[in-house]
Write a structure and sequence with these properties.
elongated; mainly beta; 88 residues; 3-stranded antiparallel sheet
């Protein structure tokens, strides 16, 4: 279920609520009864599954010009990596 962030206009409290997408948005603050407004906030995501790496690159190896498949090292960027064909 998604987590939504709200801000109370009366007490200025910012809080998060876990709701279904189909649930109506909250209208009142549970602390003071004031009106609340749903905030737009940055969401987090996590890449899972084969082909994804925590830092965006595969481990080890030298770069190859033009890149390639997901398991290959990243594309060469100006011949700055060791063993790069365009560095010579």
């Amino acid at each position: 279920m998604p987590v939504y962030e709200y801000r109370c206009s009366a007490c200025e409290r910012v809080f998060e609520v876990q709701q279904k997408i189909s649930d109506p948005p909250l209208t009142t603050c549970s602390e003071c009864g004031g009106g609340v407004k749903k905030l737009v906030s940055a969401s987090a995501f996590h890449l899972k599954g084969g082909g994804w790496y925590a830092d965006g690159y595969s481990s080890g190896g030298s770069c190859k010009e033009g890149g390639g498949a997901a398991k290959e090292p990243p594309a060469c960027q100006g011949g700055s990596c060791p063993g790069c064909p365009s560095a010579s």
